From TrEMBL:
InterPro entries: DDX47/Rrp3_DEADc, DEAD/DEAH_box_helicase_dom, DEAD_box_RNA_helicase, Helicase_ATP-bd, Helicase_C-like, P-loop_NTPase, RNA-helicase_DEAD-box_CS, RNA_helicase_DEAD_Q_motif. The lineage of its organism: Eukaryota, Fungi, Dikarya, Ascomycota, Pezizomycotina. It comes from Baudoinia panamericana (strain UAMH 10762). Gene3D superfamilies: P-loop containing nucleotide triphosphate hydrolases. Residues 58-86 form the DEAD-box RNA helicase Q domain. Residues 89-260 form the Helicase ATP-binding domain. One of its GO terms (biological process) is ribosome biogenesis. The keyword ATP-binding applies. GO terms for molecular function: ATP binding; hydrolase activity; RNA binding; RNA helicase activity. Keywords: ATP-binding, Helicase, Hydrolase, Nucleotide-binding, Nucleus, Ribosome biogenesis, RNA-binding. Residues 461-483 have a biased composition (Gly residues). This is ATP-dependent rRNA helicase RRP3. It is found in: Nucleus.
Amino acid sequence: MRVAKTERRKRGGEDISTSKQPQSQLDEDGGKGQAEDGADGKAIVDKLEASAEAEEEKSFADLGVNESLCDACTSLGFKTPTAIQREAIPLALSGRDIIGLAETGSGKTAAFALPILQALLHDPQPFFGLVLAPTRELAYQISQQFEALGSLIRVRCAVIVGGMDMVPQAIALAKKPHIVVATPGRLLDHLENTKGFSLRSLKYLIMDEADRLLDLDFGPILDKILQVLPRERRTALFSATMNTKLDNLTRAALRNPVRVSISTSSYQTVANLLQQYIFIPHKHKDVYLIHLLTEFSGQTCILFTRTVTETQRLAFLLRALNFSAIPLHGQLPQSARLGALNKFRSGSRSILVATDVAARGLDIPSVDLVINFDLPPDSKTYVHRVGRTARAGKSGVAVSVVTQYDVEVFQRIEKALGRKLEERAVGREEVMVFAERVGAAQRVAVGEMKGLHEKERERGGGGGGGRRKGVGIGSGKGRGGGKSKGREDRMDQEEG
């Protein structure tokens, strides 16, 4: 329960941190904090707790959001503001620069979108706001959120990301959208090469997943972008995790910012997320994976891997066993990446096999399960991966596969989280009944991978895949085995 707020000066800006313990003032009468005043102390605590509950029941209108945007929130199912929204929106509406720190899935996008849209409503003009995101998928998602929240005021957005033709993007910019959502590299390309495109009139700059922007070495590009933006603007940085790399960027981009922290640590995960692990021999990873997916049959799952090759291999393996899996990784064309996400969101595929391109910021509310088939290289990535489930107040499960080679990495993750994760009970005998069919599916996957590589060599790089054979184990919304149509037996080209 977040009750007391403390304000202090930190790195040139105010710091608003949210405490989880009530600050009872039992001694306010100068020494009457003894046992005989226990009843008065309890009354004060009860009053503080009631105040906190009232705070959590605030509406968007109570935060200063205007009626049309409140209606949009209602239509999207946003009943009450989240903690980061309660803290950040009033500050943003008052014109302050913000550094926002909150766990993933806490509603950061609406926290910066609503103040921008409200300001745009009062002063409509093109190129009003710019949002920078580290990944293409996150950029498209942010744009969709802006368009949904701003539907009643007809906000126009343009998404500027790599992997897409620059000409249609230049045409979209020529139509003078209100909001530009971009990845830094492609935005700089347009600033330098697209005639007539300028952000000199920009009013708002948002850097979402700001630490990730720096982790991906966007620092020099961000410096160039900041040089061509007007100094008189409002700026906000949002992320689930913050680190010292952001200090220089904060000093360069923000003016007297307010730091809003809704996490107890940099590695905070939501309370309604059940985090477990299984400790298994490396050689049986595939078999245990199939057992896990069978246990969670019918539920949606994001399966995280470390490499593009492993992502493709597992997608072939799961399809051979009639699981409805679809791959997502950075070597797919952008249209294929968006197509994979849309199919997963719509429910036509129940398993998304992905590299860490899907670990950051993606909001897919229906994800029931996250499996770390390969442990992430660092604790921060772990937090973002498991944050794909248990979003917006829903519950979720995250299971990490730990082998004899992963113990040290896993211990570092537990240390960063400040807790020991629960081991999931798995009986070896009930797992190994899948071994024969998994072995057959592995051989099919190897053949598919060879066919894929041959086609890539023929095309000079590209998608496609060979024919897929059913091995006779299914789950969820699979597309069937031998009865599938011939065109469905081939991995769709747009799916990699």
